[in-house]
Amino acid sequence: RGHRDRRDQLRRLRDGLRSIGEIHLVNGGGNPLPIVSFVSDVMHPADMEQLLSIRGFALRCGRHCASIAHRRLRLSATLRASFGLYNTQAEVDALLDAIREIHRRREHPHG
Question: Within 30-88, where are the H helices?
Fold first, then answer.
């Protein structure tokens, strides 16, 4: 049950991120690990990490021991979300909502 829940959460997060304009997944759907790396065209990963942290999410920003891959992809850093057995679908949905809100506010800072 736990592995299936995690796979469903990963699929939900990947699909949700793909639906947000200007978000790009870095590790495609073939990664069996409960990790999703992505970047945003709207802001640097470190800025997004901080805004998500303020909202209670613990994502990591950096090169994640993959400097060569980041150089080849011409990325300074990525954001990484990872899941454990304790995470829920509701938390995935809340993370996606927070990312959408950050993007909306960035696109329309006064509205």
Answer: 45-54, 67-72
